[in-house]
Amino acid sequence: MHGLGNDFVVIDRRSQAFSPSPELLRSYADRRTGIGFDQLLLIDPPTGAADVDWQIFNADGSEAGQCGNGARCVAALVAGFRARRVSLAGRAGRLEAEVQADGLVAVAMGVPDFRPSALPFDPAAAGATSADGVYTMQADGDAVDFGAVSVGNPHVVIEVADVATAPVSEWGPRLEYHPAFPERTNVGFAQRLADDRIALRVWERGSGETRACGSGACAAAAVLRARGVTAQRVTVTLPGGALTIAWPGEGQRLWMTGPATRVYEGTIAST
């Protein structure tokens, strides 16, 4: 499955056993010798009040706390691609999703959390300064300005003049592995096109740059909205397509709406 080109292997463990090691995940993620994916998603029987539990694993074998595009795909699959409400429980808590009649999936991604401890992010240890929600920090001898927010997983958002020429492959890994982020971080490069439009590229923790990042779109919209430079409802355009993000403001849930596409089904031979 994929959400705007952010592609997934989805394994439903409600009717089968599957316990992957990090090594096995990395072998499956290899696009030449394996299946290939940005993330692998596991659907499990519910342990609480949600319809299903779920887990997210990156291409490097690490576990992630949140994945917006993945949440839409799991919700659509659990709903049988029919209009209905679905709830998912994972590391970041419970998500409410609605598969709409037009095939798009809306997900309540929770309340954006700007507290450094939520990411986690240690500004003091990094010597970072902050003004009006913008941090300035040194990374490998160079200064960088960014916003930071958790939307169930950690995100840094750098505002750029031109997303097409943004130094994603340079600054993405430099910030992902910066010691100020003990659990690493995702890094978004956002260009404000208008009050209601943002262009975005994202370096995803554990996967590198992807065609789209749903939680990254939520983070970019939240950071720019908190600065007062965008509207409550914005269209975020990524290399793989567009998402609609709606956030009324502080203390309110943020909603993400976009497609979820099933590409094929298959069977993995035992190894």
What is the rounded Rg?
18 Å
For the residues shown, what is the average pLDDT? 96
Task: Classify the helix fraction into a percent range.
Answer: 10-25%
Q: Number of DSSP helices?
A: 5
- How many distinct folded domains? 2
**How many strand segments?**
18
What form results from the Cα inertia axes?
globular
Under CATH, the topology of the largest domain can be stated as Diaminopimelate Epimerase, Chain A, domain 1
Key traits:
alpha+beta; Diaminopimelate Epimerase, Chain A, domain 1; 2 domains; 18-stranded mixed β-sheet; 5 helices
Report on this model:
This protein has 271 residues and is an alpha+beta fold. It has two domains: 2-108, Diaminopimelate Epimerase, Chain A, domain 1, CATH 3.10.310.10; 116-256, Diaminopimelate Epimerase, Chain A, domain 1. It contains five helices and 18 strands. The protein has an 18-stranded mixed beta sheet that branches. The longest helix is centred in the C-terminal third of the chain and has 13 residues, at 214-226. The radius of gyration is 18 Å and the shape is globular.
Helix-strand blueprint:
Layout: E1 2-3, E2 6-12, H1 22-29, E3 39-44, E4 52-58, E5 63-64, H2 68-78, E6 84-90, E7 93-99, E8 105-108, H3 123-126, E9 129-131, E10 134-139, E11 142-150, E12 154-159, H4 168-176, E13 186-194, E14 197-204, E15 208-209, H5 214-226, E16 233-238, E17 241-246, E18 255-258
Parallel strand pairs: 2-3, 4-6, 12-13, 14-16
Antiparallel strand pairs: 1-2, 3-4, 4-5, 6-7, 7-8, 8-18, 9-10, 10-11, 11-12, 13-14, 14-15, 16-17, 17-18
